[in-house]
């Protein structure tokens, strides 16, 4: 294993870091890399500065991706932290099992899913990723340490959604869920406006739900879009696997200009008839739709993009509607705008989910975006909501304690596991997560 000096970034490509990186392949190499160095990171699918350590060192865990043990009767899997969610789905769906919670990209690693306590399209039913972790192994100064929720609840909760600050995650035991086949039956319904969207979420009985919103529309058509409802189905994978499309160059600014986005959104919604549409899709195409476009972040150009993702309580629908109105008036949103309903499930002190509605919108990096984001952040704060660390690069540190009321409990646990702050990342420092400003 060798250290190399590299420039790297999160998925949004706006915030970058320069420092030394190592990619250990086994436990002895990892122990050597961690000695006096920096945080462990995954596939850098967090959008902002969560996986960055500018001017310092970081240990990329992607080569530690072995499947260690699996019980086909119970669906309990032990796997190294560098394995990706897409690989788990590919290997185990044909055997009748799959991860209980999957984020919107299959390129996320198991360690990254734990560090951000990610959620999926079934959060209202299944909760967060960390709620299906039965135990894990952390690398500490004294060597590997087994952590189970029933034995060390405080440390376990500090690790779930804890941004890797309790130590490098070596492996985890996951409770997979049974799956009847490799197909998803999907119903797509055109939704006319924001209020109708929330009503559709509240009345849906589907296990998996997600909404696409046309963030360019205002007035009576504010929040129009498409609701997808998914049901797991029997049968083998429908059709051959499609090859990923490559984006070879950074797209010009015109590619996601406001007129182009409006035209694309009009076309996208026109595909769905008024009577809705039903179809059968492979599991990975339903769960990871954008993974078919490899390096799709290059469509935003060399300056990259920001994502704003918030969640507000269930009774704050009007406030979320006002947030969407602010976005529409700004005239800078991309075609990627997603709405989901969430349940109360969360595994850690700094876990993002709460019972409510979550909205995620991409913004191409422009000079006016920070000011727009600041206004949106205040609206979220006033609504009693919070922002998602996995997507953030612009939040203000003064607002974090109000959004995450268990922050002080998390800080107390981190002070025990990493008192010298060796594992801090750029996000942790920017938001003063470990210290009171």
Write a concise keyword list for the protein shown above.
single chain; 437 residues; alpha+beta; Uridine Diphospho-n-acetylenolpyruvylglucosamine Reductase, domain 3; Vanillyl-alcohol Oxidase, Chain A, domain 3; 8-stranded antiparallel sheet; 5-stranded antiparallel sheet; 13 helices; globular; Oxid_FAD_bind_N; oxidoreductase activity, acting on the CH-OH group of donors, oxygen as acceptor; FAD-bd_PCMH_sub2
Description:
By secondary structure, the protein is α+β, with helices and mostly antiparallel strands. The protein has three domains: 57 residues; 113 residues, Uridine Diphospho-n-acetylenolpyruvylglucosamine Reductase, domain 3 (2-Layer Sandwich); 214 residues, FAD-linked oxidases, C-terminal domain (Vanillyl-alcohol Oxidase, Chain A, domain 3), CATH 3.40.462.10. The protein has 13 helices and 21 strands. Helix 9 runs antiparallel to helix 10. The two termini are 38 Å apart. The mean pLDDT is 95. GO terms for molecular function: FAD binding; oxidoreductase activity, acting on the CH-OH group of donors, oxygen as acceptor. It holds the Pfam family FAD_binding_4. This is Decaprenylphospho-beta-D-ribofuranose 2-oxidase.
How large is the count of helical segments?
13
The total of beta strands comes to 21
| Low-confidence parts | none
Q: How far do the termini sit from each other?
A: 38 Å
| Main beta-sheet strand count, sense and barrel state | 8 strands, antiparallel
> Can you tell me the overall shape?
globular
Strand percentage lies at 25-35%
How many separate domains make up the residues?
Answer: 3
Per CATH, the architecture of the largest domain is: 3-Layer(aba) Sandwich
The level-1 CATH class of the largest domain: Alpha Beta
Adjacency order of strands in the biggest sheet: 16-12-14-13-19-20-18-21
Computed structural class: alpha+beta
Mean pLDDT: 95
Query: By CATH's scheme, which homologous superfamily of the largest domain applies?
Result: FAD-linked oxidases, C-terminal domain
Radius of gyration: 21 Å
CATH topology (level 3) name of the largest domain: Vanillyl-alcohol Oxidase, Chain A, domain 3
Please give the share of residues in helix: 25-40%
